[in-house]
Amino acid sequence: MHGPLIVLAGAGTGKTRVLTTKLSKIIRENYASPYEILTVTFTNKAANEMKNRVESILKINTGGWWIGTFHSMGARILRKNPEIVGLKKHFTIIDTDDQLKLLKQVLSFHDIDEKRWPAKNLSFVIQRWKDKGLNPENIDEHGSEFANNKGAILYETYQKRLKTLNVADYGDLLLENLNIFTKQPDIKNYYKNKFKFILVDEYQDTNMCQYYWLQNIVNQNQNICVVGDDDQSIYSWRGAEVRNIFKFEKEYKDVKVIKLEKNYRSKANILNAANFLISKNKNRMGKNLWTDDEPGNKIEIININNSEEEAIYISDKIEEIQSLGISLENFAILVRASYQTRAFEDRFIKIGLPYKIIGGTKFYERLEIKDALAFLRVVSSDYDDLAFERIINVPKKGIGEKTIRDIEIFGRKKNFSLMLATRELVKINYFTKKVNNNLINFLNFIDKCREQKSLSAAELTETILDESGYTEMWQKNKSVEAETRLDNLKELVTAISEFDNIRSFIEHIQLVMDNEINNKNNSVNILTFHAAKGLEFENIFLPGWEEEVFPNKRALEERLNNGLEEERRLAYVGITRAKDRVWILHANSRIIHGQWFYSIPSRFLSELPPDTILLNNLVNLNTNYINNLDNTENLLEHDNSFLNKKNEKNIIVKGNKVFHQKFGYGFVINIENDNAEVNFEKTSTKKVKIDYLSKDV
């Protein structure tokens, strides 16, 4: 009961009960009063579940107990001593919108162009510093690359502004606790003595600020119990440090380690495959999941030709099993990146199969996709007022609400659309010179796009997004969210490449949105690996297991072997969500961000034990390539050499016979930069990007 304890709780081992049972036992056996125990977790949902379980066990109300999220407990401590860190009583905790408004003021004060250095980016930089427990004075004088190394001074100005307004942001709730403990050790000692026991959930997801916070308030008896699973640490991108769980045994004396390895969720074959896969990680504490349950079905590895077949295979398999009386809610499709949901959404809507996106937004309802579609609609029609109004000032070009209102009033008087009204108004120089020029540039951009007759629908879409500045707008935004939005825009180009023209695609989308089936109580679940943590499903489909898709190329480039190990942990999390059956799919070729690529199977497939898998239509696992990968050295060099060989094989010159996924076979009659003019056998001569062609050998 006493002393430091770490519980390594594997997937499906019932870890949620560990902390509530221990908390109840401490109280029932009078080791401490309810108000002398600190219990922290990461989400309000988890905290409420803990309270409900404890109330159910002890039959008493938990009101006033120290049970909650890290930040809610930090806020509680800060409320008692705000003046020590320059705040007054009744300070306000601001939300993200207010935080961004303040940061825009800070950028303006320092004469920094907010268009070039968005406040949202600065918010991300500052939050990462706070996650690490860093105050402005702890930051190197150059800060970060933000605004030409002005990050530190911007952080300092922002913090001063917060104090002036008597507000705190989300990151301050723990950081200011650390400042209080440093400035007033007696307050730190008060909490050390107050909390006789500290219980921590999901310890593998703690950041450095949370780590330091816990260190400050653990008492001299070191009565701290943490529950976590290093094999499920998958949130480094939001500040989580898997090293914290590795350091626990070194930070505290005589640590007791308990491993929960009996799994109550999955069949034995699933667990054996997951165990073998995660054992390839060198940085782990080590455990082995097992079950009394039967072996169950083997994991099926499905090789298909392309991404379209992938969606068809999964939908057919779901309908086949559904016909046996299995509810749709028992199926889940787990993807590595959110852009991958588009192909499944299109397929399910087409065949009328209900689905829902868990932890995210449906593809065609995402902000960047709605914006992009609005651009396409405006280029396609002079009369789409809703689309015109949506993107007339995107990216921002100084066209405000008054300008739009003037256009609307003029349009109503003349019975013109907004587009036609704008054309008439700029002719008579109705607006200020700057606004008039901006509107003329916008209209010229629309007209220029309409003249691009030789481009395919996908190429025209890329041109529209590039020439409008919309792609560049998100490229300049350095947040994690921006990278996802760029991926989604590229996936939109992929979707459009299947259509002859933009108008037919827009019509398709309108039908898709009109015919969408909403039946959330009985629908297929589509979600990312990150959103799947903590969930479980009878049947799991894992598509896109190819190099560069999964493991993710960006993760490997940015974090090398640490990135690879986290990608492998994602694979482990994905497999262990399944109770009964798992299908893993990989394609021979795939359109990624509008370009066709020949794929090679994910290295993770070769890391699954042969006795737990069933190969279905699998031609070649490319084990020679995968086995030769050195996971700790020259990781990227191996990948690049493969890509170079792939590109060498696909060098296209005049006279080559080529294949295009939409137009079929044809002969190259001219090459110009990245474009090829091809005389297609079944259509006509078209100019297409070389990246869309494969050489017929």
What does this structure look like?
It is a single chain. By secondary structure, the chain is of the alpha/beta class. Helix content is 46%, strand content 15%. The protein has 26 helices and 22 strands. Strands 11-12-10-13-14-9-17 form a seven-stranded parallel β-sheet. Strands 3-2-6-7-1-8 form a six-stranded parallel β-sheet, sandwiched between helices. A five-stranded antiparallel β-sheet has the order 21-20-19-18-22, with no helix packed on it. Helix 9 links the parallel strand 6 and strand 7 (224-228). Helix 4 crosses helix 5 and helix 12 packs across helix 13 (341-351).
Count of runs of 4 or more consecutive helical residues: 26
Query: Widest sheet: strand order?
Result: 11-12-10-13-14-9-17
Distance between the termini: 70 Å
| Strand coverage percent | 15-25%
Q: What overall geometry do the principal axes of the alpha carbons give?
A: globular
Which range best describes the helical content: under 10%, 10-25%, 25-40%, 40-55%, 55-70% or over 70%?
Answer: 40-55%
Biggest beta sheet summary = 7 strands, parallel
Mean pLDDT across the residues is 88
- Structural class from helices and strands? alpha/beta
Number of strands: 22
- Which residues form runs of ≥5 with pLDDT under 50? 619-649
